[in-house]
Amino acid sequence: MNFLNGLITAFVDGVSELYHVQIESREVAINQTKSEFVGDYTIVIFPFVKTLGKSPESIGNEIGEWLVQNHPDVVAHNTIKGFLNLSMSDAFWTRVLTAISSENKFGYGARTGEKVMVEFSSPNTNKPLHLGHIRNILLGWSTARILDACGHDVVKVQIINDRGIAICKSMLAWQKFGNGETPSSASLKSDHFVGEYYVAFEKAFQAEYRAWQLSDQGKSTYYEKKKTDQDEDAFYKDYKNTYFNTYSTLGIEAKEMLLKWEAGDNDTKALWQKMNQWVYDGFDVTYERLGVHFDKLYYESDTYLLGKKVIDKGLASGQFYRQEDGSVWVDLEDAGMDRKILLRSD
Hints:
This protein is α+β, with helices and mostly antiparallel strands.
């Protein structure tokens, strides 16, 4: 940093005056002072101990005092072992910040020709962007800007999770409870509008699940499958996904909708496109408010068939295996990651 050159020169002059020894500026290592110590910048004393013939603490204290007396920007010093910590004046920081503010490209490096991709945000299309997304978006955007300042050619992308059972939950709820309502007629930001139907599905599912728990089938399932000393609340909490996939009317309808989507059913695809567009319109408002944009968008709906092809290759090579129910798995236990499902039975 250019604004530290004067401090380094003063250190060299101090060594010369106090010890009658000439050192080179390039020998002086200067860093920001660690947060647990008092000071702004730290000069490493160890390299000069042998030449100057004194302990690191003595050298640090003597040169520190000399700098306070002879350098207008050094206002205080302390020495911790072989590290001389220096506190700088307000005038020094005013001068530094003034110089930085007048330099349009401060901190920017030369172009490297290296391309870097930063992927961030990447939401689902069944609910609005929430605070966790905003954190991710701003971290991704900041990372991209920093990499650009370092000279890289940055490509900002997001992978939009636009298909799957969660998206079908919002779609099914709108079909059942929407009565043709639109974001405009509801006076709601459009991604929030779709999110309301995702919540509506969950409320309806929870009501259905509670009713099943009180039924003869629900009670007999509890007594048949519960673990030792597992009370009803704990059992039904753990059993929720199994119930959704096995008994739930809403779960069956949502899965049927997903299968229709995968089969290319025109009505299902039309509803999917309409509700996804509502979400995209809402997302765009948020991105514009944040001052964020992307160079490329990727969609899960464009890649899920490619994923199935990869699974077929893995089956043919023996890397993956098929269970009796038709589901496809990979065994990663030798890597400490258990067995993972890649393709469900349906």
